[in-house]
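ok trying this again, last paste got cut off
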Amino acid sequence: TQHFGRAIKSLRAARMNAKLAETLVRRADCHVKLGNHLGAGIDFEDAAKALKLGKLAAAGTMSVSDLYSSAVLQFSAANKTERAAAAQLQVLQLACASGNLSGASEAIRVLTDMYSNTE
């Protein structure tokens, strides 16, 4: 995953948001394979932010909402409830903004479940 660092830095500086998002997704996938759930969550979240910043719809086959959902799963696996909840709120916001009421309801359910499982 270290080899991605220079490429990500260069893409971020050049504001090449689509390529940046795709590269972050590839690095996140590597983190997942290595069991680094926090690193994967951060990269999925950063990829979603890059797409939003560039007003882009997707990185490969993953939409902004898909990327935030992936971040939620990885942050949850890393036992980072607050980070997972923040990413889930982004999923909710995107569902509301697009008028997707069933998606918004599901996002609220997931968010509520996150906190019902904590003490």
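PB: full thing came through this time. The beta strands are 58-59, 62-63.
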